[in-house]
Amino acid sequence: MTGITDVLVVAPHPDDDVIGCGGSIAKHVRDGARVTVVIVIGRERSALDDAVSDAEFAAETENAAKALGVHRCVRFEEPSRDFALSRRVHLDLVRVMREVRPQVVYLPHDNDDDVEHRMVHQLTTEALWMAQSEFFQETGGRAMPAPQLVLGYEVWAPMARFQYAEDIDGQIETKVEAMRAYASQLRHAAWDEGIRGLARYRGAVSAGSGHAEVFQVLSLGAPPAGLRAGGGHD
């Protein structure tokens, strides 16, 4: 999407942004956009990675963001499994939105199997409305214009239907590299192999070959310059 200068990605957990739209993030960066990632919920420890310190896990997050070229990564560190939608967390996200003033926004799609992903979908859609209103002045920023494009990405549950496909054939290795930065998460499952396989499948379905990420179109304003009808940008 040529002409895009600021992109916001809202992720429920660390690594969800990489899995859901890491290739698109790298493509935006390649095209000169600043990408801000907000990770809402903090780390959930497991017996498989309990030996990994919080500092080491934070370094994994930073390294993944660096691999993709993310401009800024904001971590809210909300409690896992005790996460609740509150005015405070809404205002925290509105504050970031008004600072970034994104033209493109990515968030989890609305029918993900993970309950926290669905909660973050709700949080983001509500915060988008709040950020565009003349209210909530306690965030300290001006009301932002509506994004040109709001896209829902897939993580835990692949989407049965999608409206937009992004060719990431040139970014698939960068996406896999970013996933491999989360060494502690690869102890749970071979996510690096999983995201490569899903991208290959999505590429075959949407274009007949290559690698792709697919999205639910949640809002479409004036089409960004360079957007090709039917999916993707050059």
From TrEMBL:
List the keywords (alphabetical).
Zinc
Q: Which InterPro entries match?
A: GlcNAc_PI_deacetylase-related, LmbE-like_dom_sf
Q: Where are the coiled-coil regions? A: none
Q: Which SUPFAM superfamilies match?
A: LmbE-like
How far does the signal peptide extend, from start to end residue? Answer: none
Q: Does the keyword Phosphoprotein apply?
A: no
Name assigned to this protein: PIG-L family deacetylase
The species is: Streptomyces yangpuensis
